[in-house]
Amino acid sequence: MDWIRGETVGHGSFGKVSFAIPRKQSTLFSPSMVVKSSSASCSATLINEKLILDELKGCPQVINCLGDSYTYENGEKLYNVLLEYASGGALSDKLKNSGDHRLPEFKVRKYTKALLRGLHYVHKSGYVHCDIKLQNILLGENGQVKIADFGLAKRSESMKDDKLRCELRGTPLYMSPEMVTGGEQDTPSDIWALGCVVAEMATGTPVWRCSDMSKLLMNIGVGDQLPDFPDKLSEEGKDFLGKCFVKDPKKRWTAEMLLKHPFVADQDYDDDTVTLTCESGNPSTSPRCPFDFPDWVSDDSAQSSVTRSITSLPSPAFQELMNLSDGSRSTSPAERLRGLVSERRPESKWSAGDGWVSVR
After folding, report:
1. Under a CB-based contact definition with an 8 Å cutoff, are residues 217 and 337 in contact?
2. Is 26 found in the same domain as 40?
3. What is the spatial distance between Cα 199 and Cα 188, in angstroms, rounded to a whole number?
4. CATH code assigned at 292
5. Containing structural domain, residue 60
6. What is the CATH number of the domain that holds 59?
7. Which helix (H) or strand (E) holds 327?
8. Kind and range of the H or E run holding 164
9. pLDDT of the residue at 173
10. Catalytic hit among 68, 131, 186, 190
11. 3-class SS at 128?
12. Would you say residue 162 lies in a domain?
């Protein structure tokens, strides 16, 4: 698609986001688009996002990808991904612009149900988002929820081998206990992060009120301490958070289970219902209780189209993706925590509320 770069609307660690204006209007593409761009030599994260979004097409709660291209601008080769424009902005901005920096419970319920539908689709499609937070939840013109920023997303642990299990991905305030202590990041980690988002929508503040990184990681990963539950949230809401904030990921409720929780079950939502089936073609069934989980089955011979596409990438992008698998897994939670606490990244601002960075 032939397009012209417009005004810049945002920046990130990957590059920048600008408006994209089609040179010729086409019924195949929305006239309201943005383009996410990065240098072609370090575009592995953006390429990963494009490949995953292509596999998640059809879900109303996931941002729609409209294509990609390479361009030469100011002597530099750029990789660009065209995305639908969510004119309502990020959910984090909605909180900041509200009178008391929090949302009324009826809106929290509505947005939570939409998020669950999107996460249910993502998880059943075999992926983990790995960075669910308010900044990565966008709103359409009519308030439709759109999960965005899949640059850190990956195949579910249950659908691939264990070689990438030690990766550290996401934003510290939203990290799950198993991520901090063992490097495990599967679909339950997204549910923990969802709980953080729900509580933050209700209060306007992060669930962990701690600016010291070492203390934060210890609170998340060690002992029985849980995030604070909002006092003004209904009993149904507190019970919902209780199903998200379960230290043992095997006992944490799934997105499919949470969709039937009273906190969201009776919420009307305009988007089409997403129907998912197993490989056999039969509809998936929800566990009857939080402990009724099917055994995870690992199929090492099954290789996703994302993996197949990655192997054919140009060497710079391929190398960056492969670098994500470097490192060894700690032998104990204590050793891992010491490594995390001692790690220093140039752009980290642990004491600033808006300064939390994605750890890649």
Report:
1. yes
2. yes
3. 17
4. 1.10.510.10
5. 3-84
6. 3.30.200.20
7. none
8. none
9. 87
10. 131
11. strand
12. yes
Please say if the pLDDT value at position 344 is more than 60.
no
**One-letter identity of residue 228:** D
Strands of the 15-22 sheet, one edge to the other: 3-12, 15-22, 33-39, 76-84, 65-73
Say if residue 74 is in the same domain as residue 96: no
Q: For the segment 247-281, what is each residue's pLDDT rounded down to a tens digit? A: 999 999 999 999 999 999 987 655 444 434 333 33
Active-site residue, 272 included: no
- 330-336 long-range contacts (CB < 8 A, ≥24 apart) are 330/166, 330/182, 330/183, 333/180, 333/181, 333/182, 333/221, 333/222, 336/180, 336/181, 336/182, 336/183
Distances in Å between the Cα of 357 and the Cα atoms of 13, 25, 163, 336, 360 are 9, 37, 25, 19, 9
Enter the tokens of residue 255: 């997105």
Which are the contacts of 146, defined by CB distance < 8 A and separation ≥ 6? Answer: 61, 62, 63, 84, 86, 118, 137, 138, 139, 140
Strands (E), the chain: 3-12, 15-22, 33-39, 65-73, 76-84, 89-90, 127-128, 137-139, 145-147, 154-155
Q: What is the pTM of this model?
A: 0.74
What kind and span of H or E run contains 243?
helix 235-244
60 and 190 both lie in a single domain = no
- Count CB atoms within 10 A of the CB of residue 241: 23
Average pLDDT, the chain: 76
Judge contact between 115 and 145, C-beta under 8 A: yes
Burial grade of 318 (CB within 10 A; 0-12, 13-18, 19 or more): middle
First CA to last CA across the chain, in angstroms?
31
Q: How many residues does the chain have?
A: 360
DSSP 5-44: EEEEEEEETTEEEEEEEESS--TTS-SSEEEEEEEGGG-H
Report pLDDT digits (tens) over 48-106: 999 999 999 989 999 999 999 999 999 999 999 999 999 899 999 999 887 788 899 99
In this structure, the answer to whether residues 142 and 242 fall within a common structural domain is yes
Examine the pLDDT at 46 and tell me if it is beyond 90: yes
- CA gap 2, 23 in Å, rounded: 6
Which tokens hold the place of 74?
């100011």
Among residues 39, 61, 84, the one where a domain terminates is 84
